[in-house]
Hints:
The complex is a heterodimer of chains A (253) and B (254). Chain A is 37% helix and 27% strand. Chain A has helices at residues 42-49, 81-88, 106-116, 122-135, 151-163, 181-196, 208-214, 232-237, 242-252, and strands at 2-13, 16-27, 31-35, 57-62, 65-70, 76-78, 91-94, 169-173, 201-204, 217-222, 225-230. Chain A is built from nine helices and eleven strands. Chain A is of the alpha/beta class. In chain A, α3 (106-116) packs across α4 (122-135) and α5 packs parallel to α6 (181-196). In chain A, β10 and β11 form a beta hairpin. The N and C termini of chain A lie far apart (39 Å). Chain B has 254 residues and is mostly helical. Chain B has ten helices and no strands. Chain B is elongated and about 80 Å long. Chain A binds chain B through residues 11-15, 50-54, 56, 85, 88-89, 91-93, 95, 97, 99-103, 112-113, 116-117, 145-147, 161-162, 165, and chain B through 52-54, 56-57, 59-60, 62, 64-65, 152, 154-155, 157-158, 160-164, 168, 172-173, 176-177, 180, 252-254. Bound molecules: adenosine-5'-diphosphate and magnesium ion. Adenosine-5'-diphosphate (ADP) sits between chains A (13, 16, 18, 36, 38-44) and B (60-62).
Amino acid sequence: xxxxxxxxxxxxxxxxxxxxxxxxxxxxxxxxxxxxxxxxxxxxxxxxxxxxxxxxxxxxxxxxxxxxxxxxxxxxxxxxxxxxxxxxxxxxxxxxxxxxxxxxxxxxxxxxxxxxxxxxxxxxxxxxxxxxxxxxxxxxxxxxxxxxxxxxxxxxxxxxxxxxxxxxxxxxxxxxxxxxxxxxxxxxxxxxxxxxxxxxxxxxxxxxxxxxxxxxxxxxxxxxxxxxxxxxxxxxxxxxxxxxxxxxxxxxx
Amino acid sequence: xxxxxxxxxxxxxxxxxxxxxxxxxxxxxxxxxxxxxxxxxxxxxxxxxxxxxxxxxxxxxxxxxxxxxxxxxxxxxxxxxxxxxxxxxxxxxxxxxxxxxxxxxxxxxxxxxxxxxxxxxxxxxxxxxxxxxxxxxxxxxxxxxxxxxxxxxxxxxxxxxxxxxxxxxxxxxxxxxxxxxxxxxxxxxxxxxxxxxxxxxxxxxxxxxxxxxxxxxxxxxxxxxxxxxxxxxxxxxxxxxxxxxxxxxxxxxx
Lengths: 253, 254
Ligand SMILES: Nc1ncnc2c1ncn2[C@@H]1O[C@H](COP(=O)(O)OP(=O)(O)O)[C@@H](O)[C@H]1O
Ligand SMILES: [Mg+2]
């Protein structure tokens, strides 16, 4: 079953074509990694998928439901705000710089969204939140405030916050890029564990070894287009395109 | 006149000062938030004049690049005209750019000169409150606005992806953080307000300073003014202490 489908997505900022005819689909349980040089449009693609940006053209479909559908001219027509609110429940996004709510404790960061937006009962949500914290190795931080945590711990909280909404698909935008190198491992481990549990994920990352080991499918983007995609062995180990080779060479030095 | 007598009379005036101070804050602080909303309003009735490409730039938070043609610049200017914001800007600059005393006189005597309204004591007090509350709302609005604009856009984005509505985002995520950030400049305004209450004398309001002047003039004695000064100083010390406590109470997060 396709959790996410994007067809012929186009996005411009002024005259700058940031995404050019991007199509991708993500099956349930699949892990898709997006790699590519800075400025290639990876973040913009995730932001379009998570409704933080509007696509100019193309379709955006979650679990068969259209969030946006291209009209005859190819222009993306979004569904009503009420329908978008329902569609938002399908996905979560983990940001590069966490974006935790600093005035809430760790526990409240995780519990408020399911209670407020999901309308769920406090007792049950609290249990789940504590279980998520335990899974992240942060039970003892439930009552801490974000500023009291290391970057790696904050990022784990933000992953727990996203998971508490029980998304069908989770997006990560360079989840380790704001972290000290010695802290990236703990985040990659969490994502790896989620992959082992068949969580559907789309991960933008510069960690090539991680992308190769954890992904089912890899997309290499450059200049707003998908240059090459396929199995990790193909794209990372034996890239066919010159641009992919050039990009990967910089990581092997 | 004995010292205790002076104290008693000034004490009566002080109650009026306190009343004006409290009521001004109660009205101006929420009003300031409304004014700040108006000041940040981006309703643009002529936005249909923009091309799709221009719209996408603006939506991404960019400025439009300049073109040589005046027609383009005129069209874009008109399309980006925010009437509510502009009205609020003008209003705020008038309120902050003219003396409060003048504003008090205009509010009180304006209706009198224009429609021959009667100048009851009650009206004087109402006018006093309107003048103070609106003037201070203008100052608070600018403080709130800078506080709101200082919250990182990532907070809005995290809330949006989690499914928070606009109002949930504002009241639960943005406002509490804004309050913490604006506390120091708000404290400054509140301390200024303590001193500004003495301007109420222009509408013959019997606040402490007015009383002090009356006694001083009647008795040819400077003691009452001096005592009034001590009152203001203590009042401000209490205000500063209270605000410090609030700041402390909010220091549990960063
Ligand atoms: N809000 C925006 N306004 C204008 N241009 C933008 C905006 N966001 C991104 N861009 C441009 O889009 C291109 C792709 O950016 P981005 O998606 O952040 O790339 P990546 O995440 O791959 O580094 C860049 O050229 C960037 O300058
Ligand atoms: Mg990026």
